[in-house]
């Protein structure tokens, strides 16, 4: 059980944010957002939210509303029923529900073996990649 306490910030429905946003914990956007978002935390785009971004770069994102722009999530991207996403996405795990309007390209990120690339011979690294890929999926 994860006992780590995380802070949750909510941008309300009346919020109209324009600019660069960086945060560390969790954020829910219910209003309008224009700009770029970078975080090691999670992001939720509520059903009422409209986000026009250059890029969102987060750990995970759940989308119920509208996002226009590129999304990168190190862990996962979830597009929920009724959401609209226009932009390229890259992530390790992707879930797209029914009734999602998605226009863009998908790049799936692979988990990298837990090996220091510079401390092993290329043959050992290639073998680690092969072994890792055998157990994934």
Please provide a written account of the structure.
- The model is unreliable at 131-137 (pLDDT under 50).
- With 137 residues, the protein is mainly beta.
- It has one helix spanning 122-135, and strands at residues 8-11, 16-23, 26-29, 32-39, 42-45, 50-63, 66-79, 84-86, 89-96, 101-103, 106-108.
- The two termini are 24 Å apart.
Briefly say what this structure is.
The protein contains 1 helix and 11 strands; from the N terminus they run βββββββββββα. With 137 residues, it is mainly beta.
The number of helical runs is 1
Low-confidence spans: pLDDT under 50, at least 5 residues?
Answer: 131-137
Q: Which descriptor suits the 3D outline?
A: globular
The secondary-structure element order is EEEEEEEEEEEH
Mean pLDDT, to the nearest integer, reads 86
Q: Tell me the strand percentage band.
A: over 45%
The number of distinct β-strands equals 11
Question: Major beta sheet, specifics?
Answer: 11 strands, parallel
Helix coverage percent of residues? 10-25%
Q: Find the structural class using helix and strand composition.
A: mainly beta
Radius of gyration: 17 Å
Distance between the termini: 24 Å
Family: Belongs to the bactofilin family.
Pfam families: Bactofilin
InterPro entries: BacA/B
Protein name: Polymer-forming cytoskeletal protein
């Amino acid at each position: 059980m994860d006992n780590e306490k995380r802070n949750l910030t909510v941008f309300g429905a009346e919020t109209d944010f324009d600019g660069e946003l960086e945060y560390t914990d969790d954020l829910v956007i219910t209003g309008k957002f224009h700009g770029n978002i970078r975080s090691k935390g999670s992001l939720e785009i509520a059903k009422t939210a409209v986000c026009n971004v250059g890029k969102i770069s987060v750990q995970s994102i759940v989308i119920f509303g509208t996002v226009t722009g590129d999304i990168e999530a190190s862990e996962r991207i979830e597009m929920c029923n009724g959401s609209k996403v226009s932009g390229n996405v890259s992530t390790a795990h992707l879930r797209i529900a029914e009734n999602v309007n998605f226009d863009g390209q998908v790049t799936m990120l692979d988990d990298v073996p837990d090996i220091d690339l510079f401390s092993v011979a290329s043959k050992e690294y290639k073998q680690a990649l092969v072994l890792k890929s055998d157990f994934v999926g």
